[in-house]
Amino acid sequence: MDRLTGKVAVITGATSGIGAATARLFAREGAQVVLSGRAADVGSAMAAELGERAMFQRADVTREDDIAALLDAAVDRFGRVDCLFSNAGAPTAGGIDTITEAELDCGMKLLVGSVLFGIKHGARVMRPRGGGSIINNSSVAAHRRGQGSLLYSAAKAAVSHITRLAGVELGPQGIRVNAISPGAIATPIFWGGSAAARDLDDEDNLRKQAKLERSLARATPLPRSGTSDDIAHAALFLASDDGSFINAHDLVVDGGRISMFVEQPRDAG
Question: 194-199: long-range contacts (C-beta < 8 A, 24 or more apart)?
Fold first, then answer.
């Protein structure tokens, strides 16, 4: 239970789902954890739950200034940053016939801009320490169709490629940059996200969760749905010394879903 002892980790989107599971796992493994999100009440409660080795910093990852301030706050509190998990994101609309300028601006700022500025400022604070681990949350949508909107898939493909490019550029400075591409992970994102889940009572959320897990289990070669903990453990590997020779890599964690046959659209002709 000490794979991250002595390390400081910053996690965006840490107030629910994958981010919350990762924050709790990292704390159990000995890390000092900086949680970030927009729900200050939830984040502050989580930090209190994790104890004095955790803190919450509100940040909107569509804003570079917020990301820079988040990394600076981590250094001010704990003296260093060893790992940044750029996890925050959300589904985005935007199909070939329907995409709007507003959807494009929002989707690219949230999914791509947050990663780019995370790398920029993560590297800024890691470089003086001689290295670190940056982990970007991508998606199987980056690799195959049918896993999200056209815009979401394109943005996540950009995340995966940016990861490879940044890993090559920053590797000589001791900074590893990797991505995780989750498959269909059973989280409230499927029924409106954490904000929608907070508006429901526990019974409703449990019922939706159970139904979702049954559905996803039928669409995955391994006969179960993925969970937030599956992704958290992948992030733990990449953040820890166990993953010290992994760089510029996109780790797919999807139970084999990426290899399943995907029906192609019929030729209109």
Answer: 194/15, 194/16, 194/17, 194/39, 194/42, 195/39, 197/16, 198/39, 198/42
- In the chain the first and final C-alpha atoms are separated, in Å, by 59
- Catalytic, out of 46, 152, 178, 232: 152
Q: Is the pLDDT of residue 186 over 90?
A: no
* Predicted structure pTM score: 0.90
Give me the residue spans of the domains in the chain: 8-185+227-253, 193-225
Q: How far is residue 185's CA from residue 169's CA, in Å, rounded to a whole number?
A: 31
Rounded to whole angstroms, how far apart are CA atoms 182 and 20?
Answer: 15
Each residue of 17-28: pLDDT tens digit? 999 999 999 999
Q: Is the pLDDT of residue 79 over 90?
A: yes
> How many CB atoms are located within 10 Å of the residue 205 CB?
16
When mean pLDDT is compared across 63-67, 148-152, 227-231, the lowest value belongs to: 148-152
- The yes-or-no answer on residue 122 being catalytic is no
Q: What is the distance between the alpha carbons of residues 70 and 261, in angstroms, rounded to a whole number?
A: 41
CATH number for the domain whose boundaries are 8-185+227-253: 3.40.50.720
